[in-house]
Amino acid sequence: MSSPNPPSSPQAAQPLVIDQAALMQIITTIQQAQQKQTHPTPAKPRVSEVNTMGAWTGGGARSDPTSPRTNLCLRALQMDPSKAFAQLTTIEKECRSGLKSKPGPLFCLGTEPDAKHIITVINNLEDFLTTHGMESVFTIDEGTRTFDMLKRPAMLTKEVVDKWIKNLTVDGVPVTGSTNLPVCPYDRTNLEWSYDTILNSCTDALVLDLKRNLKADQATGPALLFAVLQICYRQAESKVESVLKLIEKLNLRDFPGQNVTSYKQSLTST
Questions:
Q1: Which 3 state secondary structure label does DSSP give 217?
Q2: Is this structure's pTM higher than 0.90?
Q3: What span, in angstroms and rounded, lies between the C-alpha atoms of 53 and 16?
Q4: For residues 69 and 61, is the Cβ–Cβ distance under 8 A?
């Protein structure tokens, strides 16, 4: 009977040797995996730029027009989609909040206390739109002329506003001597968000009045602002015109002793 073979002695572990070609292959594989995780650069907006954070809209910072005025101007982010969605949801909420989110007067009906503060409301809205990157959809560019809806409300007509919205959403913004610009997706976003911005910059009474008369094609910020200005700004203009006509009729000499106080009281009572 033969005796069993003695157990073999364990062999020492051999070191892993990677030649130059294999090492380069490993490095290439890692780089390709990293490139797949890199998020694509967002499209450039019609107005503004794209930076390392993403795409932003608006006129830019006062000291650096190549940077957003605030982070609330961002419309697309270069990051993981789930994280980007959460951050953009917060930005959207802030943009839609309007002047109701801040102390101060609001757009209102002529019978409400804030009616005399129409210029203050317009100035406050202009600041809000700028810090939130939405002012570009309220700056009408017809190719041959450009004007701000808030600064030149007397130039507005329904036809002008409707054409501007159609350019932003369908035809593209015209360029003198060239073809129209392609429709910008961020303009569409700002048109939608700014509708709530304007609505949330009105008193409840004015909102109720607007909703009675608004049509489906007015569900954009510029169209709603035009409707608001037709009510608020035109009323203010009419008030000024009536006061001017009264001034033309009044004569200080008609008041006993040419009493300036009585003259002023006659004006302010209108």
A1: helix
A2: no
A3: 42
A4: yes
